[in-house]
Amino acid sequence: MNIAAQADRTAQSITPEIVAEHGLSPEEYKQLVAALGREPSLTELGIFSVMWSEHCSYKSSKVWLKKLPTEGPQVIQGPGENAGVVDLGDGQAAVFKMESHNHPSYIEPYQGAATGVGGIMRDVFTMGARPVANMNALRFGAPDHPKTKHLVAGVVSGIGDYGNCMGVPTVGGETNFDARYNDNILVNAMCVGLVDSGRIFKAAAKGIGHPVVYVGSKTGRDGIHGATMASAEFDEASAEKRPTVQVGDPFTEKLLLEACLELMEEDAIVAIQDMGAAGLTSSSVEMADKGGVGIELELDRVPTREDGMTAYEMMLSESQERMLMILKPGSESIAERVFQKWELDFSVIGYTTDTGRLVVRHRGITEADIPLAALAHAAPLYERPWTKAEPQPLITLEEVPAPNSLLGALECLMGSPHLCSRRWIWEQYDHMVMADTVQRPGGDAAVVRVHGSDKGLAISCDVTPRYCAADPYEGAKQAVAECWRNLTAVGADPLAITDCMNFGNPERPEIMGEFAGAVEGMAEACTALSFPVVSGNVSLYNETNGVSIPPTPSVGGVGLIPDISTMATMALKRPGDVLMLLGTEEGHLGQSLYMQAMLDRSWGAPPPVDLEAERSTGDLVRELIRSADVSAVHDVSDGGLLVAIAEMALAGGHGVVLDALSGPLPAHAAWFGEDQARYVIAAAPDKADAIHKAAAAAKVPLRLLGRVGGDAIVLDGEPPLPLSVLRTAHEGWLPGFMAHG
Amino acid sequence: MKASVIVFPGSNCDRDAAVALEAVSGIAPALVWHGDSEIPPSDLIVLPGGFSYGDYLRSGAMAAHSPVMREVVSRARAGTPVLGICNGFQILTEAGLLPGVMMRNATLKFICRDVHLRVERNDTAFTRHFTEGEVVRFAIANKDGSYYAKKATLDRLEGEGRVAFRYCDAAGKISDAANPNGSRRNIAGIYNESRTVLGLMPHPERLADPALSGTDGAKMFASLLETLH
User: Fold this and answer.
1) What is the pLDDT of residue B142?
2) I want to staple A331 with a disulfide (CB 3.0 to 4.6 A). Which of A117, A268, A403, A532 is the partner?
3) Which H or E run includes A264?
4) Going by DSSP bridges, is the β-strand pair A533-539/A493-502 parallel, antiparallel, or unpaired?
């Protein structure tokens, strides 16, 4: 039976309800029929529905994403491949990307988070890189929400079990608790890999008549329509979507990693793409489309986990740990030998053609025959209407009451869910395997050594959702700036970022306005800091019953430390060292953690980001680190100056004696204000002069804060806060919450 | 010192062990695939950490039955020193070269952190660069790291001086508070009867490089080098 006849037969059964179930609007269905030139078969409808889903097509976000800067001398590969690539010199490159797995992780936290980690690692090793570090950015609901504890436990253990088994260190990340994520948590996973810059593999399927090879796990019925689920909002019935969550097997992925890297040593692969969202469909369509060829698949050759799977199910399955490759003709036996050694399935399932069409055959029937251009380029593209909320005004300091005790407020902040130690999380991650983790979790950025060299890769994930909620533009600028600052604080040259744009329903103009604002803020900061975007993803429809998450543009940055012997850490190291603040003091308390944790309120504008000041202050800090003038460095962010100092004290096990304030600001604004572009540094007293001169030359304000020494935080006019008390508060909250809730 | 590091599907500390061995000996160890039934002539065999066979069934259980293990057992019985780290320790117990089993950690969670260990004796091939009772810092990274054996077995291990390392605090005190995973009698590593086979859960290879915030682990590899040179 030919496809037209078969489509004729099924067309009668494609009702408006079936179209709606596939997440396509009636208008989009009309476009589909026009692009295809006839009614689709059910399999074709399924293929279109995933390729045209928000998740795969970026139909709401594409027009905005074009505004992001993606180029620079350090960029080898920008957006459009499986991951971005930046140059590390000496013929080496870093490959990295961050991706969301939000919807599945809410429905099934363990498997959702685990397969998020598995997927992002495949994106990296698909390009020929060995993954060397994982990170994650997690947003959970309020601690007192009944689901939060269960979600934290499941997500952390899913991330840990997958990365630990793979033998790739999970070196850090960030975690927030906020009631606005109660019904839509965010799990953003980032992976960084290393590759020789001359051996990068891409996804473009060049050449006609080349074998299309399937490797990895067998295909099952799991994850069907995962991409469509990730493109819709939640309601009461969302738990029923559990079967659309994929199931991960890190052991198989470890074998797949080693097998792929082993085969990449041979001259056998033309193109390679992992089967992630929309599985066999998107991998085959994207490879064929990028290479300008057609592709013919024989589904009877696809290794399946269960009998009786239909073409529809095979094309839409999101079973994990699978790869699709185009091989050079005659290389099949080399590839088969490698995959047999690693005990993985291997099957030639089709060939490239010159027809420009995706043809899918199963049991002698043509199940789909679609022009690739229709799938890849005729997808709807929306310039959705948007409205921008009026940004909140800057607050006046008189509006924010002072605490009874500054050190009491510090203890309270450091023991709050927002600032407490994340040790309970990262001790469940193997953060040392590969024996190159030279800066472990808990610092400003994690650092992994480039294996066999003295170079270090610094990695940090950042965004402050409460800032973004108040002002998406300023908040997104701040996310980029803080990431840049965190990389700078360990002594790295920031290279580039990957982003994960987590937002609500783009069909609502106010959400689209948040998205537009965030993209503009991000673009401005990336340009000003020469910190381009090389990869990323967009996750929309993070809302339930019409209530959206705060706009959350997560940023994952990578920087290079030319010589790890000059790496800086935040830990105070020597009694007697002087403590200094670099940067301005304006006392911005709007949207501060002080306000949120102490007053249980959020109002006002977030602290504005002066990108010129970021650059000059950061460049100065890097210069001071490399000339070995400083003994400790920490950026000032959540919680402000006093929190930054307390974190340095706890990390080093040394107290501080702080000088009395002399400026015009109220004490609580000076100590807890979250002004941007600031760092605290410690240095030997005999270096202070040189540092003063360097700061003056760079036109960066500098203030002496006090001295390192003792075993408490000492502040004029208050009883000292012993480090042991502070440590108990800081380390206690998360384990206590998870044990008792 | 010619060393062989066995690579099982799912091993993931094979490279780390090889790097640490090469750093002290200057000779790159042979990496021996689990499916091989031959091991090159070796002064030392290392079973590295990781998740052999995904730790499916039980940690180390399937690896213990892979072809190469027959040769490892026979070399060990003939006196070749064998070092099993983490998953390697689990495999040694499953293969019957060491007594006891590894249970899930008392917290039921994966734990990755530095731990202090007390070196129980320094007259073995693995420990001669340490002093007796020395407190060292290694790193643990496991979910099934709680050592368990019957009382009679534990008594016998202690009576025969076969406890290699115990979890302790920074001052060397053995206590429940210093026991990260509920191991019986704070045992972190044990020897076979002839003290030529050592299995331990902590990873000496992870703190064997000044850039990695500790070098106590390097002393174990230096001990082996001096003994087996």
Assistant:
1) 97
2) A268
3) helix A250-264
4) parallel
CB contact under 8 A, B54 and A166: no
Chain A, window 433-452: residues with a beta carbon less than 8 angstroms from a chain B beta carbon? 433-438, 440, 449
Locate A283 and state its tokens: 């991998």
DSSP code for A219: B
**Residue B189, domain CATH:** 3.40.50.880
> How far does the CA of residue A563 sit from the closest CA of chain B (Å)?
11
The number of folded domains in chain B is: 1
**What's the whole-model pTM score?**
0.96
- Determine which helix (DSSP H) or strand (DSSP E) holds A336, and give its type and residue range: helix A332-341
Q: Distance between CA B181 and CA B144 in Å, rounded? A: 9
**A494 within 8 A of A487, measured Cβ to Cβ:** yes
Query: Best residue in A433, A567, A569, A734 to probe B by mutation, most B CBs within 10 Å?
Result: A433
**Contact (Cβ atoms closer than 8 angstroms) between residue A680 and residue A705:** yes
Instruction: Choose the weakest-confidence range: A225-229, B121-125, B204-208.
Output: A225-229
Q: Hey, are the CB atoms on A161 and B13 less than 8 Å from each other? A: no
Asked about A101 being catalytic, the answer comes back as: yes
Instruction: Report percent pLDDT > 90 for chain B.
Output: 92
> What pLDDT, on the 0 to 100 scale, is given for residue A8?
57
**ipTM at complex level:** 0.97
In A, minimum Cα distance to B110 occurs at: A428
Residue A568, pLDDT score:
98
Written as six digits, the tokens of A661 are 């304030």
Average pLDDT, chain B: 96
**For residues A418 and A139, what is the distance between their CA atoms, to the nearest angstrom?**
11
Give the chain B residue nearest A424 (alpha carbons): B111
Instruction: Tell me how far CA of residue A487 lies from CA of A12, A90, A447, A569, B218, in angstroms.
Output: 58, 21, 9, 11, 31
Cβ pair A95, A221 in contact under 8 A: no
A167·B12 Cβ contact <8 A: yes
What gap in Å lies between CA B58 and CA B54, rounded to an integer?
9
For residue A240, the model assigns a pLDDT of 65
Whats the size of chain B, residue-wise? Answer: 229
Determine whether the interchain pair B110/A429 forms a contact, defined as Cβ–Cβ distance below 8 Å: yes
Q: What is the pLDDT of residues A447-505, one digit of tens each?
A: 999 999 999 999 999 999 999 999 999 999 999 999 999 999 999 999 999 999 999 99
Q: What angle (nearest 5°) sits at the alpha carbon of residue A381, between those of residues A379 and A387?
A: 155
A427 touches chain B (CB under 8 A): yes
Distance CA B148, CA B151 (A): 9
Q: What percent of chain B has pLDDT over 70?
A: 100
Give CA separation, A627 vs A430, A453, A566, A587, A648, in Å.
Answer: 33, 21, 8, 31, 21
Is A537 strand, coil or helix? Answer: strand
Low-confidence stretches of chain A (pLDDT beneath 50)? none
Tokens linked to A444: 């400003």
Q: How far apart are CA B176 and CA A555, in angstroms?
A: 42
Place of tokens 């103009």: A509
Least CB–CB distance from B206: residue in A255, A427, A435: A435
Closest by CA to B221, choosing from B18, B40, B11, is B18
The parent domain of residue B198 ranges over 3-228
Q: Between chains, do A429 and B112 touch, taking CB under 8 Å as contact?
A: yes
Q: Are A195 and A260 in contact (CB under 8 A)?
A: no
Per residue in B132-156, pLDDT tens?
A: 999 999 999 999 999 999 999 999 9
Q: Are A254 and B19 a contacting pair at CB < 8 A? A: no
> Which residue from A118, A110, A305, A121 is spatially nearest to A224, judged by alpha carbons?
A305
Secondary structure element (H or E) that encloses residue A293, with its range: none
